[in-house]
Amino acid sequence: MPMFEDDDFCVDRPISPPKSPELHRVQLSDGYRSSRSNPQSPNADDGLNRNEAIEVPATRSFISDAQNYMHNLSLSPSMKDRRGSRNSLGTSLPIPSRESRRSMLSWYSAVPPHDGCKACSSMPPAQPTREILASQLQDISSSKVAAVKDMAFVFDIDGVLVHGDRLIPEGQRVLQILNGDNELGIKIPHIFLTNGSGKLEQTRVDQLSKILKSPISIDQFIQSHTPMSALAEYYSTVLVVGGEGYRCREVAYDYGFRNVIIPHDVVAWDPTIAPYRTPTPSERRAAWPQDFSQTNIEAIMVFSDSRDYATDMQIIVDLLRSEHGRLGTVAQDPVAQRIPIYFSQGDLLCPTEHPIPRMSQGAFRIGLEAMYKALTGVDLERVIYGKPELATYKYADEVIAGWLMYLHGEEKLPKNIYMIGDNPASDIVGGNMYGWNTCLVRTGVYQGEGNDRDNPASFGVFKNVLEAVETAIGKELGKDFKLE
Ligand SMILES: [Mg+2]
């Protein structure tokens, strides 16, 4: 049954009233009353009781129903759906090759792991006699050493090892064990895989090393936009969105993009493009405006959470609707002339200091998809990196193999990989789909009873990260393997 008459399409007025309308009380303003009243007959009975509120039935307009405009891949992932990816372009995304990444061995030879890190400089120096003893022990325990080289841990960070800048004490102990505080004095391979974003990898590992009081290398660290560095081979001039101030511009240049534009630059060039935004004097000074009517922006990279939804969405939609990324134009064909858009991760929500989780990049993306579809009538093709997307796990394989090479001189992928995370919808679903053992911990997002119903962890649910690591080590190296 049609809800609206043809000539009244944009008005929320149902032809037949809903059975149980939710009523909103509306008090008419004086101005509204006088305009509707006949000035010649102020007391005429025109059907309006001017001294009382009137009641307006709340209706549900299909034109305002965002569900119609949502991308069919935008729902949060669940093992129940058995959906491998939220990407509308499939999963063959570029990731950095081993050769194109900085060599970890050259990094280590150039910069000792502890150099310049306050946390590491406060740690006791390596003890040669202890290392000799460890190597002797490893010689006589070759089967356990082989098992160590055939396992690896992949840690989510927030909610597992830390809460923001606050240490989860079990996280510190876990890194001591994996860095050699065990019966063989052997380093057990582990990497860090986070959907965090918005800073240089080096900045983040320095902060993390300090909190966890263990040295962490950028070569064992992946944040949501790390694999997107591979895109620098494909695009030169890009719009980078999200993050604090100008940090994401710095990240993009570090990845090798050559002309990195951020929304502040566009607003500084033409303030009318964002009518609800007045840049502060310091933003104006720091912006790099150029003549964007003469610049083709080749791709849009959402690196981190938007700090200004209205401005960022306006500029992104303008670009998506433009002719080949030229601001100020509107393409005749919204598909053929559209530039690509990439998101560094797809989480709908993220935990913060606020008691209720806050909206994250996934929510921002869904808003964009709905707006784009409402304006053009077509689905927005987009690409998402981060957990639980396949590209990020392929990249994690590269990083694990490289780290094993650094630690033990063997470049291979261990058979037994354990993902430890607090979020069933990203850490666990992704690890499960990729065939890793998954461990869900109760120190972050997940607080439910038993295992998660939609995305159950394959190796189990644990009180904290230490319990998960101890259990996994017990399985791989034997229950008698001493963690001291
Ligand atoms: Mg987490």
UniProtKB/TrEMBL annotation:
Disordered, as annotated region: 1-50, 75-96
Keyword terms, alphabetized: Hydrolase
Family matches, as SUPFAM superfamilies: HAD-like (SSF56784)
Biased composition (Polar residues): 32-43
GO BP annotations listed: glycerophospholipid biosynthetic process
InterPro entries noted in UniProt: CDP-alcohol_PTase-I, HAD-like_sf, HAD-SF_hydro_IIA, HAD-SF_hydro_IIA_CECR5, HAD_sf
Source superkingdom: Eukaryota
NCBIfam families with a match to the protein in the record: CECR5, HAD-SF-IIA
Protein name in the entry: HAD-superfamily hydrolase
